[in-house]
Specification:
With 691 residues, the chain is α+β, with helices and mostly antiparallel strands. Helix content is 30%, strand content 23%. Helix 10 packs across helix 11. Residues 134-542 form the Mediator complex subunit Med1 domain. One of its GO terms (molecular function) is transcription coregulator activity.
Length: 691
Amino acid sequence: MATPQANKLAASQQGKTPQYAAATPGGSASTPAYSNLHAAFSPSGPRSSPQHVKKSPATAGAGGIMMSVGNSSSGQPGGGVSAPMNFDSPSAAAFNSMLGVGGFDASLDNMGMGMGGMALPRPNGEEERQKRLDEILHILGRKKGVVSEEGLERLVKRIGLDVLWEDRNNLKILAIAGTTFTLDIGMKDHKVQTVALQYAFSGDEVNKYKKEAEAILLENLKLKPEQIPWTKQLDDFANNLEPLAALDKLSIIDDKGSPVLVAYDAIAGIFESLQKVHEWDVKKLREDPAYSEKPEQYIRTIAMCEQNGRPWVHEKGVLGVGLEYWRDQRYHIPSAARAEAWYKAGKHWSIMVSCARRDPMVYTSAVRISDKWIGDEVEMAATEGLPQMLNWQEPPEVMMPEKPGDELLSLTGPRTPEVMFMAVVNPPVTLPVTVWEQIHHYTQAPVAHPAFMQTFDYLIFPAEENYNPTEPRMLQMDKSVRAKNKDGVFKEVLHENRLFIHKPAYGQTLTELPFSHPSQLVNMLPILRQYAFLWNLLDKSFGSQVQNPATPPAEPAATNGSATLTAKSDDFDTFMSHAQANADEPTPNAGVKVDVTLNALSLPNPKLQITFPFRGRPAQITVDIGRNGVVIVESTNVVNDEGQVLGANGEPLKGSGPRSQCSKERLARLLMFFEDIDTWCEFIRANVGPE
């Protein structure tokens, strides 16, 4: 794939983005009739609208109708380059008469377009009404309603579950039934009082967490002390009931009423195996002397962020199973008084484990039901010269019972269910496109590129206007930093941050992908942590997590909000030439200028070059963001390899002896601890220097 370059392109090339589906010159002019034929036989009528049909004379040839005359320099029909038709010429009039159009109409609303017997019909009034109705239903579908008897019944029917009202124990019971579960909601005066969940076929692996599921559903429906009836929204309840119903519909019960596949059991088996691996990780960390004095929750956090993740079931208001693999400020140890609240709070990254319908022609691996994905001995016996490996197992496949008529399909063996495991990344993680492809290869998932791709930086920080992916880009953001000096006194420091991307890389956002084995989830965790950490660093300095200064500087470079600028190619040299001058001597009433250059094209790891004022000169540190969010200081003019502080001439300062506190490894570890570029810069400015 071609990569956008920082140098200026010709005007006709600027802003171009790879298109994977393009019109082929010389293609058959009757091609558009196929899409029209599909629309004509669609239950909702043609999918096209007048807005989709309109073309200008300049673009009509690219969309499927070749508005040109078959002239060629070689004299052969169809050879050479077709000349565009002059719509004022006699030939154009003849062409229009063939199409049944009296004169050229740019809107093409009245054009019949005879195409080999097929005609492009003009949408009639019924089709337009159907389209508008579909749009209205889509908008209304976003609203889940409020907690009430009518609201709950309407929501359940919309999801596709059976519903029945009963009177029981002075309560009005809404009985919700699927194929594999029932949910009874007890109400009185439109107020939810009780919730009872029952699984019809599931075993202990599912039922032992039933109380947690009921508590979450009750919390979704129960009014808070200050709330009154008809004011609580059903959104949270719907977000939990819809996945529950989806798994129910994927479950398979045979003609005798016996379960063939229960999706809840398949997901519970994944959880049990991952939980076994997590407990083994925690046990190994406890044996490490470095963690002997650490709190239990801290050890589990390290196992989550550096080992094989932490599985969870029915947590934080969400029904389901997930694998948590990252959190903000993983190395922070809170006080005992606030430890429980702190570990529950903060931003977390997880992979939700679910199931989805499978097309055997696209993805061959079907769902399996087992809690033996990992062996009794979690770790395999060590092999000389190879790292330790987990003892993953391959459970047997689920086989579908034979049905009459299977022999007519020439099936040579038992069929597997058309259901697959699905990993839902929450929150989605933005990756360079090559890394995104690599993740798909881990699970043998099909790689389907969209027709239009955005750049990696655009997906993290969308541009509002005037964005050109072939040009360098600069973002500016003012940030108020709470910094502590050597005396332990905190003060507010204004940072004028600038992010520069002069080598854009194309990217994709990973939201979900199929998988067949929990080991595939574990294998992708180091990469997901790497880019979750990178996103967190950038977002804290240039995104939604920035704490804007209360009082702006006298002449701010940007407003208190985010200001996104597109730097032209010919401005790049000017920007770089002023970078050092700006870092040398801050002007009065100006903030500390921190410049960050992102290189997402660097392989195998992205890099950040960070420049800020330090001891009367610009400090420059290049860091490598590796797997699992491990930071390596690749180069710097602040300290040398021995931990000596350097001067402007690159020589160690007088009185600066080797100190482990000033080593490159220590600086890298501090960035991993702070997870904040601005706080890290202020720490270096205040604490790194000769004794």
